[in-house]
Amino acid sequence: MVRIIAGSEGRFGARRLACLISGFGIVALLAACGGEFDRGPRGAGLPYDARLSTGETWRDFTILVRAPGVSLADARESARFVATRHCIERTGASSVDWVIDSATGDWFVTRNDAGEPMIAGRCSAR
Question: pLDDT tens digit string along 93-123?
């Protein structure tokens, strides 16, 4: 014969309910943290939408940053993000040799007719 003590079931039920609610809360918080950068064509966050095209070899590439009029600092950061990912996937290393403007000693950045920056580089690791 099983004997149930009055009130013990109620405490167990409340504890179980509290654990379930806490568990769902933790899952909801973790799910909210999993967002990505804003990659919209005119997004406010970094990196901006940037498209990498390979050159003669898979190590050579050109990156088009899809944000006309964006500052050079933001264009560089967006290009760096895409280039690093590309080089890690291809060579296992993140090092990039950017095409340098001989007049300024800085990255060589051109703009297409729409005003979108274009930056070229090469994965330096083998």
Answer: 999 999 999 999 999 999 999 999 999 999 9
Q: Is the pLDDT of residue 89 over 50?
A: yes
DSSP 102: T
What's this model's pTM, rounded to 2 decimal places? Answer: 0.63
Distance CA 71, CA 76 (A): 9
Pair of tokens at residue 86 = 């590309």
Q: How long is the chain? A: 126
Q: Look at phi and psi of residue 70 and say left if phi exceeds 0, alpha if psi is from -120 to 50, else beta.
A: beta
Distances (CA, A) of 96 to 28, 57, 58, 104: 38, 14, 13, 19
CA 123 – CA 126 distance, rounded (Å) = 8
